[in-house]
Amino acid sequence: MMNAEKTKILLISASGKTGGGPSHIFLLKDVLKEEYDFYLAMPKTYSKNKNFYSKKYLEITERKLHPIDILRLILFSRKNSIDIIHAHGKGAGLIARIIKIFLNKPLIYTFHGIHTNCMNRINKYLYIIYENITGWLDEEKIFVSLSEKIQATNLKIFIGKNNRIISNSTKKMHRINLDAKKNNFKIGIKNQKKNIISICRLVDQKNIFEIFKIAKKLKIYNFIVLGDGYLFDKAKIFIKSCNIHNVYLFGNQKDVFKYLYESDLFLSTSLYEGHPISILEAMSIGLPIVASKVTGNIDTVKDNYSGFFYKLGDINEACNCIERIMKNDDIKLKISNNAFFTHRKLFTMSKMKNSYSLLYKKYKRN
Question: Which helix (H) or strand (E) holds 230?
Answer without folding.
Answer: none
